[in-house]
Specification:
rod-shaped, 195 residues, 72% helix, 0% strand, mainly alpha
Length: 195
C-alpha cells in the first residue's frame, strides 16, 4: 500500500494542496505530521501573561458592571442626599446642590471609564486569541479529514484492484474448466459418459 500520510515536504504534494499555505498553516501541517495537539487553553495562557494592574482593572470592571455595585452605589448616593438634605440632625457637610457629591461622581466616572476600556481591550485580545486557536483547530480538523478521505480512496482503489485480480483468476479457472469439459465431450463423441 502507498504511503497515505502527509508528505515530508508539503511543496511536493502532487495535488498541490500544500503548496501555497501561509506560515501559520504550515505550522499546522507540521503539527499534524508530528501528531501534536493544536488546541490549547487560551484563557489560562492569557491569564499568566497579565500584570497585576491588568488583573485589578478586570476585577474593577467586573465589579462596576454588576447589579450589586449599581444597587449599593444608588443606596450610598441616597444616604448621602438624605444626610445632607436634612439639616435637623447633622450639620450638612455637602449642602444642596451637592457639589462635593458631583465632584466625587465625576472623578469616579473619569477613572472608571479608562479602566473599563482597558478591560474591554484585553477581552478583545483574549477573543482574538480564541479565534486564532479555533482557526488552528478547524484547519487541523479539515486537513486530517482530507487525509482520511485520501486514505479511504486509496484503500477503496486497492480493494478494487484485489477484486479485479480475484475475478481474473476466477475467469481463468472457468476457462480451464470449460476447456476440460470440451475435451471430455470431444473424447466421448459428443455424449457425456453415463455412470
Amino acid at each position: 500500500m502507498a504511503n497515505v500520510g502527509l508528505p515530508v515536504q508539503p511543496e511536493r504534494d502532487r495535488s498541490g494542496a500544500f503548496r501555497n499555505l501561509r506560515e501559520e498553516e504550515q505550522r499546522i501541517v507540521d503539527k499534524i505530521r508530528r501528531r501534536v495537539r493544536v488546541s490549547r487553553n487560551v484563557d489560562a495562557s492569557f491569564e499568566q501573561q497579565m500584570t497585576f494592574g491588568e488583573r485589578m482593572a478586570d476585577r474593577l470592571a467586573e465589579l462596576a458592571g454588576s447589579w450589586n455595585f449599581i444597587i449599593g452605589f444608588l443606596g450610598l448616593i441616597a444616604l448621602w442626599v438624605m444626610l445632607n438634605a436634612s439639616q435637623l440632625v447633622f450639620h450638612a457637610f455637602d449642602p444642596y446642590p451637592f457639589i462635593l457629591l458631583n465632584l466625587i461622581l465625576s472623578l469616579l466616572a473619569g477613572l472608571q471609564a479608562p479602566v473599563i476600556m482597558m478591560s474591554q481591550n484585553r477581552q478583545e485580545d483574549r477573543d482574538r486569541l480564541r479565534a486564532e486557536n479555533d482557526y488552528e483547530v478547524n484547519l487541523k480538523a479539515e486537513l486530517e479529514i482530507e487525509q482520511l478521505h485520501q486514505k479511504m480512496d486509496e484503500l477503496r482503489e486497492q480493494q478494487w484492484q484485489e477484486l479485479l485480480q480475484i475475478q481474473e483468476r476466477q475467469i481463468e479457472l472457468l476457462k480451464q474448466q470449460i476447456s476440460m469439459l470440451q475435451g471430455i465431450i470431444n473424447q466421448t463423441g459428443g455424449h457425456p459418459a453415463s455412470s
